[in-house]
Specification:
Chain lengths: ~950, ~240
């Protein structure tokens, strides 16, 4: 027992052979730590603790990720993924002034996080309820301990009502139960009251607003009134604002046509009506108010029209409870946003457009500062969507302003005094599909070579000479760049290109493009060889107006990418270099015509896997795989289309050969049975639909994912054991199976003598079944996704890449560790040891050296794709989900490339020293030879 | 086995809710305040595991844990932690009483072993039990690049052998020259006498005369090459 533990420990601590070199980390790989698109209400600058000099930028994104971003460089300080379900409900992020915690509410959980390091402060759960709103009580009322500010939450569903939570522990201080059956909308606080706002929907569809004022100390109802909103409000979207914590909480709404703005100071019954600018139809009204208690009660109303935007600033008279318009900001063409910031009691409004940033005080319309935005490639053609600002004012003029704004192209950028400090490509957090594409230059060369291959010798020769003459055009430039390159190679880092000219230096094939499509309908290309640099980023709605993209899928062919989606009638063909749609001529040129081949396509139709001749799924299926009764298909994996195999057999220690069962049409289907809690796998031949192998596991937790991968002649899958039905062992298992033609070495099975055979031929059946060897291992963590590395010729040993969601890692398990031929219960014989087999051990510890993401934590990985490079040793890896991560893998070391450890200067010095040595020794040797001829022996 | 299954099933059905805390103590090789905020602990039983992030006081607080036998794992990007088996059960407070209290028992557990194969107890008690977890070691992600080391290069056995061989080849003639006449003669005589010089099997094999062997000749002796040559000459004439 102890021995086992000790073995496991030594296994996990002993240094593995395949690790990333410390100096390669960050050079061969790239990691974009993303949070998602920040939300308007849940993004703010805040000091991490009272008295801190620097502030951090906090946000809760549309992906329910809370993140603290350093405003200086845009790096993530800490982050947490809060979503429990994939389509998580709305989340709220709030913080109190001078607090060292920030509080989130997602679903039924209210959590306080330490603002500086992201540790958990407290968590309160209301099971069955959903948190509708969350506010911080800014007031000191003797009911709090120290400086800790309490939170007020509004719950919906199971227990509708308002609760006050202790800011230090999260315990409930009081509860106000609402039994009226109204729809809870928001809570708001003022220095004297907590207001609970709910909507009452009448039979006619119009809603009225109910406001209940509660005592912040006891939670008892003080007053209740209904606002006279007439028939204005028919949906929640029409309520523009329900005052956050300010001295004068406001409730503002508009009618359907956005023609008038109606504002009520919460706590009073009066409604002030203001007409919206009538020149153009207002499309959207946004109200910006400061949310500090001690700030002056001024607010700004932003009107967006189709062509421009303008704003009006209003002042609230707290004594008389009246609202008056102070001044208006002129209409500007194009899109722009306004942000609110407070310094002491003063309120400043910052206007950000694509061209400039300007700051005004809430008191007067005089512009305090104005900075033109320097144009940048990343924000070209984009306009700001929303943002937050920090303004520094000295002697009446704004001398610095920094704004973090989300732009329409999905970039989250910080603009400091008009200069772009950083951008974060947050739109990449929604990548749903990705595909590798070769660089266009390589594609053209491949195409030209193909042309030459199909011509007669003379024509091909002329074509070739012409091509070389054309290539001469680049020769002077190449010659010019040569000294720089050589110098750079000697002194600098060999794996990084010196100039921006990618194509010329891409002799290793690392510069592949990854085309990604996001859930928001964007398409982008990343250069895998230049740290994931975004080459282009387009909005798909421009290419196909009026389409809503749900889950676009990508497929690349020569020079273009094929994008299909449910909303599209025909797939879009997009050029990978120009990001434009293919013209009809290009289409005709590049779309390959498959001749003389019948392809079998397969897909899950009505819970059955069906194979069709051709791509139409309405035709009659060629074959159908129906899972046994009570079982349902949860997933399938096919062998990659391009999966080169270097050797058809496995050479044993005694020089005999076990022949691999190599079938290009293998499909692995995983099914589960809900009633018996078993998971089964079926191996099919996708051309004929024959069942080749099946196996079943009982006591499996069928609610957890069962990822699988298939490559060459082996497949693997992983599952979670269900403790409620399997008491023998606990945890997670990884199963690896290898297929051979026969169990006997040097035997090719029943088909050994046959020259031709076909899976769909007459003699199909038992004769074709492979011999399957399987081994199962315990693994310390759950696997959510698995794939296999790919290389150009398949000579390099493969690595099984598994995604570990719990430790936010991607681990490459070397093939020799999961070889199903590892001897069980005995030490390997000399012959087995020569094959590289080690004794079977039931546990595979994921060694830290196997983590291809090393010190980076890769959040929310949904898929990992691999591609061969031009070097046989190296496979390219790209992972996406929330984060984007890419790296290069060398499962059998980089045997065909000089590593960084190779010192070129030292080599030159050695050669030089040898040359000098020869110069000195040569006369000596010559003299000796002459002497030996002239002396008599 | 069946009894435990039934017992567990029964325990699951009773709605009890235990609360306990896993605590990361400060040890010589770990300052728990340096652990990343993504460090979290999971309790796995059936279905989605219960996950709790690390708190400001370096603890993982589990509340409302229903009865069952859980696998507790601490996931950290910087350190390995010992996995634990945590059994939560609900027992009557006293004999015949209807009131129930929660009992939490924790043990060390071993991956790849039977679940009943428990290690040392890591503490047991009622609600609010605090269990110290043990850190097994830090995670080392990187491999050191072995640079060129002259001393290390010279120390390798291959190079040492080569140096000794070189020394013999170059040093021998000088040694021979420096010997005085008597010793030299003695040495040469000794060399001649030695079996190596007399009947060197390798030399014999090299000088093996295939033609004569084929001709059925069973000649032995050092002069066979010369006599054969003479024969050949005779034939030519």
């Amino acid at each position: 027992m102890r021995l086992h533990a000790a073995l496991a420990l030594t296994a996990c601590l002993s240094s593995g052979a395949l690790a990333i070199f410390a100096d390669d980390a960050g050079h061969i790989d790239y990691h974009l730590a993303l949070v998602g698109l920040p939300k308007r209400e849940d993004t703010f600058f805040q000091q991490p603790y009272a008295g801190s000099k620097a502030s951090l930028l906090y946000t809760l994104s549309d992906k329910q990720v809370i993140g603290a971003v350093n405003p200086k460089d845009g790096a993530i300080v800490w982050r947490h993924s809060l979503s429990t379900s994939p389509n998580g409900t709305h989340g709220i992020l709030r913080s109190g002034e001078d607090q060292d915690t920030i509080i989130t509410a997602v679903g039924d959980r209210i959590t306080a996080w330490s603002a500086s390091d992201g540790r958990l402060a407290w968590e309160t759960r209301f099971s069955g309820a959903t948190v509708e709103d969350l506010e911080i009580l800014e007031q000191e009322d003797g009911n709090t301990v120290g400086d800790v500010k309490d939170a007020v939450v509004l719950l919906n569903d199971a227990t509708q009502g308002v609760k006050r939570l202790d800011g230090k522990t999260g315990r409930i201080k009081w509860t106000y139960q609402d039994t009226s059956g109204n729809t809870p909308f928001q809570v708001s606080t003022s220095p004297t009251h907590v207001y609970y706002i709910s909507l009452h929907t009448s039979m006619l569809g119009a809603s009225t607003v109910h406001v209940t004022s509660l005592s912040p100390v006891t939670g008892k109802k003080v007053d209740q009134y209904t606002l006279n909103t007439g028939n204005d409000i028919s949906s929640r979207d029409q309520i523009l604002f329900a005052g956050a914590n300010s001295a004068s909480p406001l409730l503002a709404w508009t009618d359907k046509a956005h023609s008038a703005l109606k504002v009520n100071i919460i706590g009073t019954k009066g409604v002030s009506t203001f007409a919206a600018p009538s020149k153009e139809t207002v499309e959207r009204i946004i109200l910006h108010a400061p949310n500090r208690v001690n700030s002056v009660p001024h607010f700004l109303v932003e009107y967006q029209t189709k062509t421009g935007h303008s704003a009006e600033v209003f002042h609230v008279n707290l004594v008389k409870s009246t609202i008056s318009k102070a001044y208006s900001l002129p209409n500007l063409a194009g899109r722009g946003i306004f942000t609110t910031s407070t310094t002491d009691a003063n309120v400043y409004f910052t206007r950000i457009t694509s061209e400039e940033v300007s700051v005004v005080s809430s008191r007067s319309h005089g512009i305090l500062g104005r900075w033109p935005i320097k144009s940048s490639w990343t924000l070209a053609g984009a306009y700001p969507v929303h943002g937050v600002s920090e303004v520094a004012v000295r002697s009446g003029s704004a001398h610095a302003v920094r704004s973090a704004a989300l732009f329409s192209n999905g970039q989250w950028a910080l603009v400091r005094n008009g200069e772009l400090t950083w951008t974060r490509p947050e739109f990449l957090s929604g990548v749903v599909s990705a595909a590798w594409a070769d660089l266009p230059e390589e594609e053209t060369l491949a195409h030209e070579l193909e042309v030459e291959g199909h011509q007669n010798v003379v024509a091909a020769y002329i074509h070739r000479v012409k091509r070389h003459i054309r290539d001469l055009e680049y020769f002077p430039a190449w010659l010019q760049a040569l000294p720089v390159r050589i110098l750079g190679n000697l002194v600098g880092n060999p794996s990084e290109p010196i100039s921006g000219d990618i194509i010329e230096h891409d002799s290793f094939g690392f510069h592949k493009l990854v085309i990604v499509a996001t859930d928001t309908g964007r398409l982008a290309a990343l250069d895998a060889g230049s740290s994931g640099k975004i080459v282009w980023n387009i909005d798909l709605h421009q290419l196909s107006p009026g389409t809503t993209f749900e889950h676009p899928t990508l497929k690349t062919s020569r020079g273009y990418v094929e994008l299909s989606d449910k909303g599209l009638v025909a797939p879009l063909l997009i050029n990978v270099t120009t990001a434009g749609l293919l013209s009809a001529k290009e289409k005709a040129e590049s779309v390959p015509v498959v001749r003389g081949q019948t392809l079998v396509f397969f897909d899950i139709v009505d819970g059955e896997l069906k194979g069709f001749e051709g791509a139409q799924t309405n035709a009659t299926p060629v074959w159908t795989f129906t899972p046994p009764t009570n079982e349902r298909i949860v997933g399938w994996t096919a062998r990659p289309l391009d999966d080169p195999v270097a050797s058809i057999g496995k050479v044993l220690g005694d020089r005999r050969v076990l022949y691999k069962y190599l079938n290009p049409n293998l499909v692995l289907i995983t099914t589960v049975s809900d009633s018996t809690r078993t998971a089964s796998v079926y191996l099919l031949d996708s051309a004929s639909g024959n069942l080749l192998h099946s196996t079943s596991h009982s006591g499996v937790d069928i609610t957890r994912p069962i990822p699988s991968a298939i490559s060459e002649n082996w497949f693997s899958y992983s599952m979670t054991l269900d403790a409620a039905h399997n008491t023998a062992s606990r945890g997670y298992e990884l199963v690896v199976s290898e297929l051979f033609e026969s169990s006997i070495p040097d035997d090719r099975g029943p088909l050994g003598a046959a020259e031709n055979s076909s899976a769909v031929g007459p003699n199909k059946g038992d004769a074709l079944e492979p011999y399957v060897l399987s081994q199962t291992y315990h693994i310390p963590e759950e696997i959510s996704h698995m794939t296999v590395s790919q290389t150009r010729q398949g000579i390099t040993s493969r690595e099984l890449l598994v995604t570990l969601p719990e430790s936010n890692s991607i681990v490459g398990i070397p093939r020799y560790v999961i070889d199903p031929r590892r001897p069980i219960g005995r030490d390997p014989t000399a012959e087995e040891a020569a094959e590289g087999l080690t004794k079977y051990h039931p546990v595979i510890m994921f060694q830290p050296q196997w983590h291809i993401n090393h010190k980076n934590e890769v959040f929310g990985v949904k898929d990992v794709i691999t591609s061969p490079s031009l070097l046989e040793s190296t496979s390219l890896v790209f992972a996406y989900g929330l984060d984007v991560f890419g790296t290069r893998l060398s499962p059998s070391f980089a045997f065909d490339m000089l590593g960084k450890g190779f010192n070129k200067v030292q080599m030159l010095l050695t050669v030089g020293a040898l040359g000098v040595g020869v110069l000195f020794v040569a006369p000596l040797v010559r003299r000796k030879q002459i002497n030996s001829l002239w002396t008599i022996p | 086995m069946h009894a435990t299954t039934l017992l567990l099933a029964y325990l699951v059905s009773t709605a009890s809710a235990a609360r306990f805390i896993l605590h990361v103590p400060t040890t010589a090789n770990l300052n728990p305040t340096t652990l990343p905020p993504t460090t979290h602990a999971t309790l796995q039983f059936s279905g989605a595991p219960i996950s709790v992030p690390i708190s400001r006081s370096n603890t993982f607080t589990f509340t409302n844990v229903t009865a069952g036998s859980y696998l507790a794992t601490i996931h950290s990007h910087t350190h390995f932690f010992e996995p634990l088996r945590i059994d939560v059960s609900s027992v009557p407070t006293s004999e015949g009483s209807t009131e129930r209290k929660e009992v939490i028992k924790t043990w060390q557990t071993f991956l790849g072993n039977e679940w009943d194969n428990k290690g040392e107890s890591r503490g047991e008690g009622g609600n609010g039990l605090v269990v110290d977890v043990r850190v097994l070691g830090a995670k080392e992600y990187y491999q050191e690049r072995s640079g060129f080391n002259v001393l290390g290069f010279l120390k390798s056995p291959m190079i040492l052998m080569a140096i000794v061989g070189m020394g013999l080849v170059f040093g021998m003639p000088y040694l021979m020259e420096n010997m005085d006449e008597e010793t030299k003669a003695e040495f040469e005589a000794m060399q001649k006498k030695s079996p190596m010089a007399q009947a060197n099997p390798a030399q014999q094999l090299q000088n093996f005369d295939l033609a004569s062997w084929m001709a059925g000749k069973t000649d032995q002796g050092p002069s066979k090459g010369a006599s054969l040559a003479a024969q050949g000459q005779a034939r030519k004439r």
